[in-house]
Amino acid sequence: MAKPDLSEDMQCAALPYRLGRHGLEILLVTSRETRGWGIPMAAPSEERHPDRTAEIEAFHAAGVKGAISRKPIGDYPSSRRSAEGVDSACVVEVYPLLVSNEAATWRDKSHRRRIWFPGNEAAEKVADSGLAQIIREWQESRITSGRGTAKMARGRGGSRHG
């Protein structure tokens, strides 16, 4: 597999989702620094594809595993904070992750909260307006394409299982 062009100003994010009682639900996690709601994200690695980086970070930050899309559903401008506390601009690529397993314990459990929200509510809760827009557009595209049903969500087309 060809290695993707990695940039220092890129982040790979997983958008964990499931079909629950309220239809499409999205798992949000709190940021370690600001405690605001967001999704698991990490800097890309030269050793793995960005979707795999997002998949691994979803387990580390939220304790979830499942089938991740090989293609991002979009990207948005954001900022990230270095270990030294310096903010810098970045672009976040978002990969949907159909959750099939939630761990009771995971690496960042003591530093983060995780909660399932209905899609529209998740878009309202996230701290980043670019992420909110991606959630809304993705949810709408699933509804208009008919992929918002439980039967379709269980399909395996175009995704990789983790």
In short:
This protein is of the alpha+beta class and 162 residues long.
* Major beta sheet summary: 9 strands, mixed
Structural class by SSE content: alpha+beta
The span between the termini is 18 Å
Would you identify the CATH H-level superfamily?
A: Nucleoside Triphosphate Pyrophosphohydrolase
Q: How many E strands?
A: 9
Shape: globular
Count of DSSP H/I helices: 4
Radius of gyration: 15 Å
- Strand composition percent: 35-45%
What is the CATH C level class, in words?
Answer: Alpha Beta
Low-confidence stretches: 1-6, 149-162
CATH architecture: Alpha-Beta Complex
Properties at a glance:
162 residues; alpha+beta; Nucleoside Triphosphate Pyrophosphohydrolase; 25% helix; globular; disordered N terminus; DDP-like_NUDIX; hydrolase
Q: What does the model show?
A:
The chain is of the alpha+beta class and 162 residues long. The protein has one domain (10-152): Alpha-Beta Complex (Nucleoside Triphosphate Pyrophosphohydrolase), CATH 3.90.79. Helices cover 25% and strands 38% of the residues. It is built from four helices and nine strands. Strands 1, 2, 3, 4, 5, 6, 7, 8 and 9 form a nine-stranded mixed sheet that branches. Residues 153-162 have a biased composition (Basic residues).
Which helices and strands, and how do they pair?
Blueprint: E1 10-20, E2 23-30, E3 37-38, E4 41-42, H1 50-62, E5 64-69, E6 74-81, E7 87-102, E8 114-118, H2 119-125, H3 129-144, H4 150-153, E9 159-161
Helix pairs in contact: 2-3
